[in-house]
Amino acid sequence: MRVFVTGASGSIGSVVVPELIAAGHQVLGLVRSDAAATAVAAAGGTPLRGDLTDLDSLRAGAEQADGVINLAFSNDWSNLEQGIDEEARALQTLGTALAGSGKPVVHGGLTPMMPGHASTEEDPDTTNGPVGGRGRNSGVVLALATQGVRSSVVRLPRSVHQRGSQYGFCSVLIAAAQKTGVSAYVGDGTQRWPAVNRLDAAALFRIALEDAAPGTVLHAVADGGDTMRSLAEAIAGVLAVPVESVPPERFGVIGRVFALDMPSSSALTRERFGWEPTHPSLIDDLAAGDYPALG
């Protein structure tokens, strides 16, 4: 099928596009710059200029495609509310364009935080707190199942990683350790972070596009929950710096999220779709080094 991918040159989109093409799909990728357009074309896709705030380009992309994968998000933690609002408007636009078509739309959401247990695909999205708006946006996508759209949400953990390029939330820990000479964790460091290699996540987005029933939630979770302290210690081992507990405020707004325990499970996803992660774990990628230089 011809697939419209937003965020096609981003950290996840840049591996989803070749995953789709290798499986025989065609890709129309939303891009904001010449460099992004070149990257999408080099991967075998067709660039479409625009961004998440360009609603006309979103409509055009959806109308030209047999399915949609939405991966674009601002990731500007200094202006999180605006990013969530932009995502909401984009999803409403895509939903209107796809209503009644029977086409699939797959949205990249977030694993929820469930006090007392690892979150599962059957748990509701987190709709309060710093990133609660993103949970509400995922709900909008799932509701499209009642409007003739084969909608699904692939929930991603906070650390989507690959050695030498991306580390999700751990990128913040790496940069802070490079800058300060201390590898820090929040509180007692027992809070758990789930993770997935971005190549394994890319495969699950393809699976959801091809096979997920309307209203399906999938979890792209390979590691159910490494403690924040163990992650800080892995970083410290590579950078040869000490490990230290710090208050959440040391990391700014995002520190409130760092303080939360957020383990997650993908048992139902693996059972239903036969998805099995095969690429290195977050701890393995951290221990291997190859960290991006501090900009």
From TrEMBL:
Q: Which CDD domains match?
A: SDR_a7
Q: Name one GO molecular function term.
A: aldehyde dehydrogenase (NAD+) activity
SUPFAM superfamilies in alphabetical order: NAD(P)-binding Rossmann-fold domains
Q: Name one GO cellular component term.
A: cytoplasm
Official protein name in the record: 3-beta hydroxysteroid dehydrogenase
Q: Name one Pfam family in it.
A: Epimerase
Q: Where is this region: Disordered?
A: 105-137
What sequence ranges are listed for the domain NAD-dependent epimerase/dehydratase?
A: 3-212
